[in-house]
Structure formats: C-alpha cells, structure tokens
C-alpha cells in the first residue's frame, strides 16, 4: 500500500510527487501522457521558465523525481478509484490494482474547441484562449477575438498589448496560417489578416474519477477543494486545472498555479495523515 497515489503527471501531479518524495512518503504517480498544453511549443508566464517547451519542464521534473527512492512513476492510465480514506484502490488500464491511503487527483481538464476548420491545427500557436499564456506573442499586431461571453473583457486585457483588437460581428468560419500570423475567414465573406486569434473555448474534466468518487463539483464543472486541496471526500485531494476553491469562478489555469496547488495538496496529505494518528 502506497501512502498516496497521484493520478496525473502534469505540473500539479509532478510537484505533488516531488513534495511527497521529499517527505519520504511512498507515492505512485500515474501518467497517461495527455497534457493540456501539449499543443503549445513554448510555455510562458512562469518565472525562470518563460519560453521553455512544456515537455522540457516535465522531463526536468521526472529527472528530479528519480532522485527520490519512495517515488515511483508509471506511464499508464488509471480507470477507476474506489474505497475510502486509508484504503483506496486504483484500477489501471492493464487490469492491475494498486492501493493507497490517500488519493491526489491531478488529471486536469480537456479543452472543448468550437468546430471551426483550421482551428485545431493552429491552437496553441497563433490561436490562443488565454491572454496570460499567449498574448505578448501578438504584441504590436492585430488581434481578432471570437465573439462570446468573455470577448469584451478579453479585448480590454489585450488593448495595451495589441495594435488593434477586433471582435467581428460575423461568425468565424475558417482559420489558416498566413499573413501576419493567421487569416480569419468570416461568414460574410471577408477575411482578416491578424497576428493572433482568441477562441472562446469551454472545458470538461479529463477523467471520470470525480464522478466515480461522488466529489462535490462547482458551477464551472471543476472539483470543489478547500485552501488545502481537500475535496468533499476524506482522503481524496485534488490539484491543478481540475479543481478550485469556491471563491474563484474557475481555475486560474497555469503551470505555476497548478504546481503550487500540487505542493499544497501534497503537504496536506502529509499533515492530515500525521494528525489522524495523534
Ligand atoms: C494551448 C495551451 C497553452 C498553454 N500555455 C500555457 C502557458 O504558456 N503558461 C501557463 O502557465 N499555462 C499554460 N497553459 C495552461 C496549462 O497547460 C495548465 O494550466 C496546466 O497544464 C495544468 O496542469 P495540470 O497538472 O492540472 O494538468 P495537465 O497538465 O493537463 O496534466 C494532466 C495529467 O493528468 C493525466 N491524466 C488524465 N487522465 C488520466 C488517467 N485516467 N490516468 C492517468 N493519468 C491521467 C494526463 O496524462 C496528464 O499527465 C496552456 C494551456 C493550453 C491549452
């Protein structure tokens, strides 16, 4: 039986495993290899790593984890989580079972992009959804923002960065690389040459574990956690994009905040297990 099984090998899960390893807790980290920022060639807005390829960051942390004897990393998907505090069972896709006293969910979310031809191919490059991750890269150019509930706020955020911000009245029906970056084709037949395009994307939980465990969800569809990463079920913790506290309308989705949440949740696992024995 492991002290903890961490499901997810993005920044939240990796940092959680590092924290648990440094406290000599036995930890199994499971990683199915589907990272939210996989479409992006470079990661931004992370101190000392601004512009680093996301895969390089993950590789560096994996190398660090290898230095801790109690940390085991397996590249395999989990399919089911059962049990209660002190005795959880995690089923893996190869049919094997692993047991742990605590579970840390760090499985992230999956972006649901609108069905616009060309969008998937350009997402993470000249098509973005987060101005903090990809905004400065369009500096001094024209930026097109897809109309939607967040369009005006996004336009205000990008105003000091872009030379011009356009929210077209007509629907966006196609995107292709070209011009200053992206050519935005509209339903009225016009085409806008822009440095970048912001899409209105939605997201959903990547994994079924919150539902399987009956965790309380928030309006955003994310797992409700307290400030220590505890979910509504004793012994189950969550960190990263899949979870946030009720004070926030949605996760502040970034590599740094996901890693920080992983650290906090892992520290809570250590502390809560000790307090339970006193
Ligand atoms: C295109 C794009 C660009 C971005 N650029 C930036 C940026 O520049 N800077 C920045 O700070 N943020 C950026 N972000 C946001 C950032 O990627 C996320 O906030 C961050 O990755 C969240 O980390 P996480 O650990 O919660 O989830 P993820 O990184 O998505 O990791 C989830 C992990 O869970 C695993 N997993 C899921 N299901 C299972 C399962 N059943 N079994 C085992 N493992 C499972 C996955 O394989 C993966 O290892 C970007 C996002 C996108 C979409």
Draw up the topology in text.
Blueprint: E1 2-7, H1 11-22, E2 27-30, H2 54-65, E3 71-74, E4 78-84, E5 87-92, E6 97-105, E7 109-112, H3 119-122, E8 127-128, E9 142-145, H4 151-158, E10 164-166, E11 172-178, E12 181-186, E13 191-194, E14 196-198, E15 202-205, H5 209-213, E16 223-224, E17 236-238, E18 243-244, H6 255-277
Parallel strand pairs: 1-2, 1-6, 2-3, 6-17, 8-14, 9-10, 9-14, 16-18
Antiparallel strand pairs: 4-5, 5-6, 7-15, 11-12, 12-13
Bound molecules: flavin-adenine dinucleotide (FAD).
Describe this entry's structure for a reader.
By secondary structure, this protein is of the alpha/beta class. The chain is 23% helix and 29% strand. The chain has two domains: 2-110 and 202-277, FAD/NAD(P)-binding domain (3-Layer(bba) Sandwich); 114-198, 3-Layer(bba) Sandwich (FAD/NAD(P)-binding domain). The protein has six helices and 18 strands. The strands form five sheets. Strands 1, 2, 3, 4, 5, 6 and 17 form a seven-stranded mixed beta sheet that branches. Strands 8-14-9-10 form a four-stranded parallel beta sheet, with helices on one face. The longest helix is centred in the last third of the chain and has 23 residues, at 255-277. The radius of gyration is 20 Å and the shape is elongated. The model has no long low-confidence stretch (mean pLDDT 97). Flavin-adenine dinucleotide is lined by residues 7-13, 30-37, 39-40, 43-46, 77-78, 106-108, 111, 123-124, 133, 206-207, 240-241, 253-256, 258. Flavin-adenine dinucleotide binds at residues 7-13, 30-37, 39-40, 43-46, 77-78, 106-108, 111, 123-124, 133, 206-207, 240-241, 253-256, 258.
């Amino acid at each position: 039986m492991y002290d903890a099984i961490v499901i997810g090998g993005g920044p939240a899960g990796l940092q959680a495993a590092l924290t648990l390893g440094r406290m000599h807790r036995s930890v199994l980290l499971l990683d199915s290899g589907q990272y939210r920022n996989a479409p992006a060639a470079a990661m931004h807005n992370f101190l000392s790593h601004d512009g680093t390829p996301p895969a390089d960051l993950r590789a560096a942390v994996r190398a660090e984890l290898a230095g801790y004897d109690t940390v085991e990393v397996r590249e395999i998907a989990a399919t089911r989580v059962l049990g209660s505090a002190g005795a959880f069972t995690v089923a893996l896709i190869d049919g094997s079972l692993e047991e742990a006293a605590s579970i840390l969910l760090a499985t992230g979310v999956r972006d649901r992009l609108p069905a616009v031809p060309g969008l998937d191919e350009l997402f993470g490059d000249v098509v973005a959804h987060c101005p903090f991750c990809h905004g400065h890269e369009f500096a001094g150019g024209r930026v097109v923002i897809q109309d939607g509930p967040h369009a005006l706020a996004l336009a205000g955020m990008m105003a000091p960065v872009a030379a011009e911000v356009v929210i077209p009245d007509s629907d966006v029906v196609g995107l292709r690389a070209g011009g200053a970056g992206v050519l935005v084709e509209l339903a009225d037949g016009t085409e806008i040459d822009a440095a970048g395009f912001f899409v209105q994307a939605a997201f959903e939980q990547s994994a079924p574990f919150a539902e399987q465990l009956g965790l309380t969800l928030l309006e955003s569809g994310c797992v409700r956690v307290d400030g220590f990463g505890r979910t509504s079920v004793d012994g189950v913790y969550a960190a990263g994009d899949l979870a946030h506290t009720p004070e926030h309308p949605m996760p502040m989705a970034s590599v740094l905040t996901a890693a920080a949440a992983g650290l906090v949740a892992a520290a809570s696992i250590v502390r809560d297990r000790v307090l339970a024995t006193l």
